[in-house]
Structures are given as structure tokens and as C-alpha cells.
Here is the input.
Amino acid sequence: MKVNQAEFIISAVGPGQYPTDALPEIALAGRSNVGKSSLINRLISRKNLARTSSQPGKTQTLNYYKINDFFYFVDVPGYGYAKVARSERAVWGKFIEEYLLTREELKRVLLIIDLRHPPTKNDQAMYGWLTYNDIPTLVVATKADKLPRSQWQKHLKVIREELGMGKGELPILFSSETGMGVEELWSRIDEAAGYPPAENP
Here is the structure.
């Protein structure tokens, strides 16, 4: 997809704040500080549209970014950050679960995993919950540039096994630094959002 327009729309914490234009939505989930915002910025070739932070756990809302007036990226609050109060995490969990289970416009969840490390218990729980609830999910293994090429397959195998992915399911290798995986990931996003192939460059 050639991105001609990308803009931040709203930070939402409930259905009353969600956009009402019925455009497809692609959500990004993952642990705090795994690089969801950096992935969005790389995909749209912008440096600072999606808000990045050196402080894990800072994103506390569903952040909507409209792309080409055709679909939304929805950046979901990260999980697994211990310094966030348990009461806050409970509030996040409630509206995130409600969004993922009931939002008709949601077409796919991109579950972002750090390729360098085995999936955390929270990663495993999130993947298991998404698949149990039949929510279309694509695993993206990012930060590939931080590992030698010779180790990629080994680490991908660990991710597949730890998450319990099916034999035909493979994480997409991605790097926000080098752009690795951008074309493949866009192809999968286009498919999920129903972007007309004829409009792609």
C-alpha cells in the first residue's frame, strides 16, 4: 500500500469514543515497549506520527490512526508492565477485552513479539485468548535487526512453539530500523482490510 495520508484521530477508552465511519480496523497488541508505535511509523514512512515513549506502560488508551481514509491502525495499550498500578491494569483490561470481543470493524490483530526473546507468559496468554475467541491474529516478530541472520530461524521456531502456533502459521520477520518485512506485512494488512489490489502501486 502506498500511504498518501496518515493522521492521528482519537485516543479512546470506550465505545462512545470510537470512530463511527465503519472503516476496517487493524489492532496492534503486545507487551509494553515492544515497538508497536515504531512499527506503525515505519509502515507509513513517518518518524513521529505514532507516539513512542521510553517509559513502558505510558500508552493507556486505544490510539486511532486513519490511513488513506480507508482503514485505521489501533494501537492497544501494552501489557506486562509491573510498575503500573493493578487497578489501572484492571481498567485497561476491561475496555481492551470489550474492544477486541465486540468491535465489528476489527479485522485483524497484529500481535507484536520481540524476536530476541522467547514469548513471555503474557504473550502466550494473549495469543491463546485471541485464538480461543476466534479473533484473526497475525504474529509479527520485530527487532530482527538486533540478531544475526543465522539466528532468525532458531528464534522464530521458539516463538512458534512457545505460542503453540499451527504448523502452517509463521510469524512475519520485521525490523522498524531496516524496513525488513514491510512489504509482506502490508500485503497481509491489505488483505485483512479489503484494500483493492488494483489501487496498490
Remarks:
- The first helix runs from residue 36 to 43.
- The CA atoms of residues 82 and 173 lie 28 Å apart.
- Helices lie at 36-43, 86-102, 121-132, 152-163, 182-193.
- The domain at 6-199 is CATH 3.40.50.300 (Rossmann fold).
